[in-house]
Amino acid sequence: MATHGSWLDIPKGSHFSLANIPFRIITTSPSAEKHAAVAIGDHVLDLHEFARHQGFVEDFASAHIATFSQPTLNDFAALGQDVHAKVRKYLQNIFAKERPFPGVLRGNIETRRASLFRRDQVTMHLPMKIGGYTDFFAGKNHAYNCGCIFRGPAKALQPNYLHLPVAYNSRASSVVLSGTDVCRPLGQFLDTPSTTESSFGPCRRLDIELELGALLCKGNKLGKPINVNEAERHIFGCVLLNDWSARDTQAWEAVPLGSFNAKTFATTISPWVVLKDALEPFHAPGVLNDTKLHPYLQEARGENVYDIDLEVEMTSNLSGCPPFIGIPMLTRAHSSNQW
């Protein structure tokens, strides 16, 4: 039964509707080589096999198709947003009920058998090789709530917060796929606010933060800034991001330079990359900032944030663990994000 405007069965409420078409790197039972893929409903289309069986009938250069055979999405991302949008639109047409290319997939049994899999039949891998990772302290409400933990409500927001982007460069090598077990980190911490001698041991205040991670498709030359109104052109797509934090260690080590071991032991990201093009309908105005920004930070576009509903589910099978904000923490925590 076809649903959501597609000839393919898409369960009601699926995050992988025809309007999404997120990208991913997978391996399958027939092939241990990593290939690019897209999700649609409960299925995954292996783009390498799809292209190999002449699934692309539009004018896609051979160099573009070759990127689907790479073990990461970096080469495909580097082609730029115009190519990303064109590929996504073509794949939407392939799966659409009223499709312009009826024989490419639905009517081609050989191609379907070789390239279309159920999601439980594939293994998912980190979508891109992460060369650098910057963690932004984004969101005024989030910054205030986090500041209350360390400095109290009166000094929650630092004086610079409303004037410039606040961020730090984190550890790219510890970015892992969602579903990876995360070991409770060891570190120093103060047992009580009045304690002067630190203790060492497993983190007792393990915390997570649901965030949106942006993967870039192009950079800039060293010393050449990117105009704020051109910044969006550098985004490949977004993933769900779980920012793990050892809050007790962070409170002790973050003076004066900031987080180190407390924030670099793990960052998990979801397996699917939602393209920038797919997020365009969700643009919305941001939180009002009464502070006058310097010209280099003034965006012409007023709707410069996304209005997206996200949620967190946490499962714990251990009792008696020291709580943080009311949540029992695991010695080994398990993160599972999907989009």
From TrEMBL:
InterPro entries: Fumarylacetoacetase, Fumarylacetoacetase-like_C, Fumarylacetoacetase_C_sf, Fumarylacetoacetase_N, Fumarylacetoacetase_N_sf. SUPFAM superfamilies: FAH, Fumarylacetoacetate hydrolase, FAH, N-terminal domain. Residues 158-290 form the Fumarylacetoacetase-like C-terminal domain. The keyword Glycosyltransferase does not apply. It is an enzyme of class 3 (hydrolase). NCBIfam families: fum_ac_acetase (TIGR01266). This is Fumarylacetoacetase. Belongs to the FAH family.
